[in-house]
Amino acid sequence: MSTTSQMETLEDKKKRARRVIAGLRKAFPDAKCSLDYENPLQLLIATILSAQCTDERVNAVTPALFARYRTAQDFADAPVEEIEGFIRSTGFFRNKAKNIQACCEGLAREHGGEVPRDMEALTRLAGVGRKTANVVLGNAFGIASGVVVDTHVRRITHRLGLTRHQDPEKIEQDLVELIPKKDWVDFSHLLIHHGRRTCEARSPDCPACPINRDCPSRQT
User: Fold this and answer.
1) In terms of DSSP H, where are the helices of 78-167?
2) Quick one: average pLDDT of 43-62?
3) Fewer CB within a 10 Å sphere, N or C end of the chain?
């Protein structure tokens, strides 16, 4: 039976997922979070800014932003219009500025200005959902709380037949069942690199794909 057969068992799918991870690690040994940050607060802010925006654009605006505001209290005390000016090019800047300020007010008020190392506490903050919390916990603290599901991860896991769901939380549930916990944090980085360099949305380069033998959607 082919590993990509429609009759594939759960155990077969787990084995294929592990082969996918091994193949991507070999192809992208330096895959890591592509947002620039120096501390958990900066990663939290950068991840909020990355919604519907490229990481490259976020990285272009955050040096000046982080030079101006160094603590959660700095963001909380700043005029929201001033924050907007720094992040305008990231899109949806008014809503992002409002969320950043409200998030930092919550950090200052409830956590002494520190980013909590807890999913529930993080997702209570303004502008922070599971995806953002997973990014922060996994990359700032090394805590594997789940799998980050962004547009690349959603697209490629569908192509790989690792999920049939569209909802990010349901996709994450499928992935945590298939992927060893030790790989949860790196898995999204590997797929994001793969999606940017090989498995593009409109024109996947299947002949050059390092995991094409384990992809049921491969094109010849």
Assistant:
1) 80-87, 93-110, 119-123, 130-140, 151-159
2) 97
3) C
Is 150 among the catalytic positions? yes
Q: Is 131 exposed, middle or buried (0-12, 13-18, 19+ CB in 10 A)?
A: buried
Distance CA 23, CA 198 (A): 13
H helix or E strand, kind and range, residue 118: none
Amino acid 43 reads L
Catalytic, out of 13, 55, 131, 186: 131
Q: Which of 36, 74, 118, 150 is catalytic?
A: 150
b (16+ CB within 10 A) / e for 66-98: beebeebbebbebeeeebbebbeebeebeebbe
The string of DSSP codes covering 17-61 is HHHHHHHHHHH-TT----S--SSHHHHHHHHHHTTTS-HHHHHHH
Asked whether 23 and 210 are in contact (CB, 8 A), the reply is yes
Query: Do 184 and 138 contact (CB within 8 A), yes or no?
Result: yes
Distance CA 213, CA 87 (A): 42
174-205 pLDDT, tens digit per residue, is: 999 999 999 999 999 999 999 999 999 999 99
